[in-house]
């Protein structure tokens, strides 16, 4: 008798599908979307080039001639503010022999000199000159300006870029995500959001879409973040996020498919009335003393001020790379098919006393340090699991065709129970549109 071959019961390894539509079914996606380098390379051109990609926040360019190094897919980009205050996004790629020009994360510079052979460019991308031009028989400077992200637009401080001349306006692209972004921004009394200079960066060995799959996922918290929830529930029944640990679909939380690949997970119905977001936060050192002090100093405004110390209670995912989680801006930066960097930027807000921003910062230290490693461990383990070629499909069928879960509103937004995987199904629709080259 031979050794039983357990694998023979699994699907035989099949020829890779050929058309993009073959990778995505109504209820599942093919593993190769997460494992194949050739697909990743094409995504970097078609997804991270042809739709609006989040680049930076205006507050990161505080004065004329400020710059910031970012990425648009794999393209290194310098976002600059010129001396007149106009924002540009240029390729960080010398037009001589391709070296990156700017190797700093941020700063102030009117021009950039390439460290390799000294070509110099203005922060608008224009070539100022090349050393010893007599060495060129025929040299028209204007042909060698830096490549530019052809369209750069800003929505209330959020700067996006696209290489697609036919893309809709940024406002149209944000579409039904706009009111949610407005809510997030308008928690600041004057709508002023400031990104602080430092960032919390984490790299994981997994595909970039694993982070996007997770941001709107209301199914995982009670399992992935069990230790966090247990700690919270030891301190009371309704502390922040512990509501995920019961039967989340029976509650009032919801997931909304907003169109264009965007989605939002709304936790706000767990809270009622001014002060309740603060009231239900996880423990923080000094919070009792802090609350007393705020109530004494600002008796008429204390509930509102305390609530903005805590997170916004929404997870807003703006396809393909911007996630607003709590009070933080998280950017997904793909590095390779199985390597990704996540950058978390904490924010402060204008129009509130300094001590509110200090406490807000303490809140923002909590989840990236304590919860995010749970998620990233799972991203890496999914990537490891995906190494089984015989098991081809990843499911995203939770909520599909379940009676009474989904509600369609007039503007096309679909609202569903919080553990519905509709956020995945809807962004894969947008992914497919882009990969098929539809404008
Ligand atoms: S590569 Fe930049 S000057 Fe040569
Ligand atoms: Fe999570």
Question: Gist?
Answer:
It holds the Pfam family Ring_hydroxyl_A. With about 450 residues, the protein is an alpha+beta fold.
Helix- and strand-based class?
Answer: alpha+beta
Low-confidence stretches: 1-9
How would you sum up the global shape? globular
What average pLDDT do the residues reach?
92
- Give the helix level as a range of percent: 25-40%
Tally of distinct domains: 2
Major β-sheet annotation: 9 strands, antiparallel
The radius of gyration is 24 Å
Write down the CATH class of the largest domain: Alpha Beta
CATH-level-2 architecture of the largest domain: Alpha-Beta Complex
Counting DSSP E segments of at least 2 residues, the number of strands comes to 23
């Amino acid at each position: 008798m031979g050794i039983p071959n357990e694998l023979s019961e699994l699907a035989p390894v099949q020829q890779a599908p050929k058309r993009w539509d073959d990778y995505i079914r109504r209820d599942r996606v093919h593993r190769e979307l997460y494992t194949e380098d050739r697909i990743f390379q094409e995504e970097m051109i078609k997804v991270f080039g042809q739709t609006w990609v989040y680049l930076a926040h205006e507050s990161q360019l505080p004065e004329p001639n400020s710059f910031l190094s970012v990425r648009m897919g794999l393209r290194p980009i310098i976002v600059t503010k010129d001396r007149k205050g106009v924002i540009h996004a240029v390729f960080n790629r010398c037009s001589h022999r391709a070296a990156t020009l700017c190797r700093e994360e941020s700063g102030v510079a009117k021009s950039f000199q390439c460290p390799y052979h000294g070509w110099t460019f203005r922060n608008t991308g224009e070539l100022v000159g090349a050393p010893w031009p007599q060495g060129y028989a025929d040299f028209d400077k204007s042909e060698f300006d830096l490549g530019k992200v052809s369209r750069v637009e800003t929505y209330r401080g959020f700067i996006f870029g696209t290489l697609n001349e036919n893309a809709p306006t940024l406002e149209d692209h944000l579409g039904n995500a706009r009111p949610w972004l407005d809510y997030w921004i308008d928690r600041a009394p004057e709508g002023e959001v400031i990104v602080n200079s430092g960032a919390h960066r984490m790299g994981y060995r997994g595909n970039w879409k694993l982070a996007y799959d997770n941001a709107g996922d209301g199914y995982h918290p009670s399992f992935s973040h069990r230790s966090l929830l247990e700690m919270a529930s030891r301190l009371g029944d309704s502390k922040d996020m512990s509501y995920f640990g019961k039967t989340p679909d029976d509650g009032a939380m919801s997931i909304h498919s907003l169109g264009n690949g965007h989605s939002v997970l709304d936790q706000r119905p767990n809270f009622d009335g001014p002060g309740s977001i603060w009231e239900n936060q996880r423990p923080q050192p000094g919070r009792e003393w802090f609350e007393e002090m705020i109530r004494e100093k600002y008796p008429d405004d204390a509930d509102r001020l305390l609530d903005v110390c805590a997170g916004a209670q929404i997870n807003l995912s703006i396809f393909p790379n911007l996630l607003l989680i709590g009070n933080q801006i998280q950017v997904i930066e793909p590095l390779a098919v199985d390597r990704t960097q996540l950058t978390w930027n904490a924010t402060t807000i204008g129009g509130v006393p300094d001590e509110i921003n200090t406490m807000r910062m303490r809140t923002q230290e909590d989840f990236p340090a304590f919860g995010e490693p749970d998620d990233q461990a799972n991203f890496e383990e999914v990537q490891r699991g995906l190494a089984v070629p015989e098991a081809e499909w990843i499911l995203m069928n939770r909520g599909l065709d379940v009676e009474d879960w989904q509600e369609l509103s007039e503007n096309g937004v679909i609202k569903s129970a919080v553990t519905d995987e509709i956020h995945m199904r809807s962004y894969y629709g947008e992914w497919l549109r882009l990969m098929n080259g539809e404008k």
